[in-house]
Amino acid sequence: MADKLVIKVTAGSDSPERCSQAFTVAAVAVASGVEVSLWLTGESAWFALPGRAAEFELPHSAPLPDLLDAVLAGGSVTLCTQCAARRDITAEDVLEGVRIAGAQVFVAEAMAEGVRALVY
Length: 120
What we know:
By secondary structure, the protein is of the alpha/beta class.
C-alpha cells in the first residue's frame, strides 16, 4: 500500500460528480489512516475560500464542507498558485490550513517514493 495519496481535483460545480468523488476519496483515505494531500485546481480552487463549499450541492453525496473539513483535519489541502492568481485569490483569502503552492511542489509530492496520485 502507498504511504501517501496525492489527489488533484480539477472539477468544481462545473462537474459536480467528479468533484464530489475526489473529495470523498480524500476524506475516506484520511479516515482510513492514509496520509492525504488534496490539490485544488481549476474550478475546485473556489473551495479554498470560506463558505464556498457550503454552496456546492449534489444529491446523494456527503456534504462538501464535511469532506473538506475532514481532509483539513487529517491531511493537507493545497491551492494551485496559478489557479489562485487567475481568480484573484490570495493567501489571506483562503481557509485556515490551506496553502498555496505550484507545480514544482505537486510534482515533488506525486513523484516521491511510496506515493500514489489521482487526478479528478
